[in-house]
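Lecture 7, part B: from sequences to assemblies.

Below are the input chains for today's worked example.
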Amino acid sequence: MESIALWLVSLIVFPGLLFTIALALFTQYLVRKWSGRLQKRMGPTYVGPFGTLQPLADLIKLVHAKEEVVHRYSMPGLAKFFGILGIAAGISAMLFFPLSPLRIVSDYDYLVYVYLVSIWIPVSLLLMSLAMPGPYTSIGVSRFLSFITVMEPAYFAALLTPMILASADYKPFYSIYATSITVWRYWVNPLTALPLVLALIAAIVTLQAKAMFNPFNIPEAEQEIIAGFETEFSGPVLGIASLLHDVDVAVTAISIVYLLLGGPYPFPHLSIPGILVLIVKYLAVVFVATVIRNAFGRYRLEQALYTIFKYALVPSLIAAVLATIYVWM
Amino acid sequence: MGWIEVAELMYFNNPIETAVVASINLAVAMAVLGLIYYFIRPRSRRITEVYLAGEGEEIVSSISPSPLNLYWFFIKRFAKRIYDYLVGAMHTGNLMDWVSYMVSWYGLLILISVLAVIAYIVVR
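Predicted structure of the full complex, as structure tokens:
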């Protein structure tokens, strides 16, 4: 009975549904607020203390108050189904991190995590978009598919690098939990720090691309192709798509914080220094993404793909190869 | 080999069990999200024309793209050099060019397979 209660608390409250959505909305707030400051604007101000509840107000407005606008080719029910599926995949993935009171651990659990985050989330977003078709939507989906072809392998290889190192010394093999709590040891060894630096650079570029922040916002390309893959979204479908995007950003940032930066370690989770270190690392990752977003203009599609290829895919593959060579030696 | 303490964890022996549990979690989270949405969903719906920057529907040939067109950019632009090489090698109009191209690639794949098997046997 206790274990079922622990499972439900982990899945529904922390770090599952409620926490993941709260973190996603807070991350959106941070990006909007910091972007506002960088552009000499105020950013969100009115709802909640310092405007922190603005993303929640926007979500409730879209999902509850706005009417649903559809055309005769739309399948809004299907779009919402896939949106909720993608958000649920992100929530399910959170239970792999040491953050969770109930941690799912096994050999090669990283592959299950990738199945949830790198397949279900982007596929859900694509299927949402295709369920609300239109010419601009098609162009956006085509561009996003091109992104996925380069971006997701880079994300996989970047996070695989610490797994390769940790699996040489610790069990379970290729486990998110085992890697998260041991990766900090590899930052203090110069031979293993180099692949981790390359993997971190690749992961940051990948986060930028997955979030479709500048310079990688060509799939939505506002004003050029209206709103790209989300042109036909409105009301609840737009709210769910926006939440799915934010959950994707939050889970990706958390994965970088845990698998590459070591989460709160060397401090334990249930300690003041541990919690502070965890928060600072998460804020740092989101801040870097926000600064890059505001420092660049939009790349053309081929520029964006070559940039992801050059600064994410190639470094992540080199990092994985270097880690493998180190382990063999 | 150190052993990470897993006593407080939900530990599984293989990734298939993990995938099943993750899928159950996904299904439960979906059900809860679906219920929440059901209770707060908007009650009104408006049906409009497809938005085509003020143009009529007749200006587009099809409302949905073909699967090939979805990958158009990746195939024709990003991987253009590879694409041109493949097309150039295979579509010269001479059947023998195509046969020699295919045989050479299959030969290379078979060679790699044989070498991999030999390497595996030696290492084992």
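Note for the exam: The longest strand of chain A covers residues 68-71. Keep this in mind when comparing with the next example.
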